[in-house]
Structures are given as C-alpha cells and as structure tokens.
Give the backbone structure.
Amino acid sequence: GGFGWSAVEGEGCTVFTQSGDTVRGSILLTYASVHVYGKKFHETERDDDHIEVRLDARTTSEEETRALGIEVGDFVAFDPRLEITNGFVRTRHLDDKACVANLVSAIKTLADAGRKPAQTTTFHISNYEEVGHGAAAGLPDDITELVSVDMAAVGEGQTSDEFHATLCIKDSGGPYHHGLSNKLRRLAEKYGIPYKVDIYPYYGSDGEAYWRAGGNVAVALIGPGVDASHNYERTHLEALEATTQWVAAYLLDAR
C-alpha cells in the first residue's frame, strides 16, 4: 500500500466526518502558489509536513475546522476521475477496483450462461489488501487453492502491459505456488487468453497475507496490466476482458 504525495498533489478530495457529513477540498502543497512563494514551491519536499487538505469551507483555525465535524482519524478520499477513451480506462484505484470488476463480471458471465463453478468456490473481497492483512481472516477452512486477483504492475523492466492479463510468479514475498501457476498457464493457453508472466520486486498480495496468517494451500496470482500503480492509473479493456476470461476458465475447470 501507500503512495507518494506527488501522486496526489492537486487532486480533489472528500473528507468523511464521524457524523456522516462530507467536506470537499483539495490536496495541496502548503506553499501552493508560485506567485507568492516562488522557489519554495519548486524546492519544498512533498512530505507529511508540507502537504495539506485545503477545505472548501470558511475556516481559519483549528477550532473552526473542528466545528465542521472534522477530527483526527477522518477518512479522506481522492477523486477517481474515471475516463474511458479508445478502450483505455483511466482512473485512480484500479488497484484493485479493476479486479473486483473482473470477479463480478466472471460471476455474471457464468450466471447468464446458467453455469456454476466446477468446485465449491468462495469469493473474498477485502477492504484491507493495501494495508497488508486483507486475506488474513475471512476465508473458510476447507479451501484447497487460492487464486489472488490483483493488478499487474506495468513499467520499465517488466513484461506486463496494459493489453494483457498477467501471471505473477514471484513478488516481494517470494514465489507463488509453481503447480497452481502452471495450471493457470495451461488454462490461458487452452482458451487463447492473452497473458504475460512477470515478477514484481515491490509488490505484495492478499495471497501472502493468507500465508502469513497460517494458511496452508497453494496460492497463485493473476490480474490485468495497470500503468502508474498507486498514481493516476490506467489499463485497457483488453486486459480486463482477458483477466475476466481467465477467472471464468479457472472457475469452470474441474481438475
């Protein structure tokens, strides 16, 4: 999880208060005006001490801000700014909204066709993947395999791209299960699903959280290629479709 402040500087946001009210604002450098601060704008490090939320409310003090209902611990949500152009899907939080869409689409595809998964299947969607303990709890004791569906990181030195699904065989937590990964490869090749194979040095998944919590089954990882992860992200419908097809193929596989 996490992001650099430069990735969200200038973004619109919403503060969710404990009372249920919301306050709009913008995430800005404390020296945001070039005309006022000159070199400070360019030279100031983007860190916790120099980034703030400029609230769209009349407030000039801590007391006035608290009177709005804002308190320590309130959640601040960045504007997603979704745009779909020429098949490209550009928005924030494709990691991991994109893969939730993959799961829901695969389930709907099977339901529309009157099909059911070949095995008893649990779909686990967690809000806590980005903080490292998403699949540490909530999965039944009788599972025999776990396929984590998470975005594939696109960048220099990677094989992943925005037009393919990707099989991650190793990340910062070590290698994924060789046998289950090969099973997914065979399914992709059998059904002509376009995919890449990659390794991510600065990446972790719910599969690792499951293992660290004591889970003891085979774990593999697939997902659509996403550019600029934890920034203003982008993927393509082709990668989303390929990943959905891969999930559906896995669900229907009886072996």
Q: What stands out?
A: The chain has a mean pLDDT of 95. The helical segments are 34-37, 39-43, 62-67, 94-112, 178-190, 206-212, 237-252. The chain has two domains: 5-78, 83-252.
